[in-house]
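thread: overnight batch results

M.L. [08:02]
morning all. the overnight job finished for the chain we discussed friday. pasting input first so we're all looking at the same thing
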Amino acid sequence: MSRAEGATAPASLPVIAIDGAAATGKTTTASRVAAALGFCYVDSGAIYRAVAFGLRELGVIEGEELDEARLADALESLRLEVDPRPERFVVRLNEREVGPEIRTPEISGLASRIARLGTVRARVRELVRDAARRGPLVVEGRDIGTVVFPDARLKVYLTADLAVRALRRQHDLRKQGREVSLAEVERELSERDERDSTRAESPLRRADDAIEVSTWPGTIDEQVETIVSAYRKIEAGARP
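M.L. [08:03]
and the structure it wrote out:
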């Protein structure tokens, strides 16, 4: 999608766009930046997972197969609502709040696959942009600064080595009761990086005007302070 197409996003409200690959710490960083500034927080990845979960419930996704003939109608039938509260981000699917059921590796993998589809991305983009009309946001994802909010007041691109990201993801999986080898986690992350960065529709990439923040070896407090400080400088009329 071109910048002109993305320019329909609301630009009147403050938006901090935080992008990065899987397991770079986007969720923790974005939620803490939002808390520090008193902004609402939006996890776009959670919306994609909710869509994937809903499509699987409708039988549009069966194992590795996607019934593209039924996709448009099924997507239209999903009742999706986002509630960007300052304290936490809520996604409702068919009038029920979703939670841990969309955080499984299976749903994450399905979400990455359907995120390549323009119809899915358009639906999620609409929901995220609508949230920005309700108040200042910190939004995290993979194309937030490049496509969803090309005029965001601050764009951030998080980075971390694959080995570090794999350790983080393995830790998260263990908390879910899943024991997966580090080699397997690295392979899955590498495959997801490839899908996200090479897809034709809104690929993962750093926006030209984004600041790059490494989430290793620094602490979470340090990276949050870097982003908050950069935003406050922009608000004060200075460059980050």
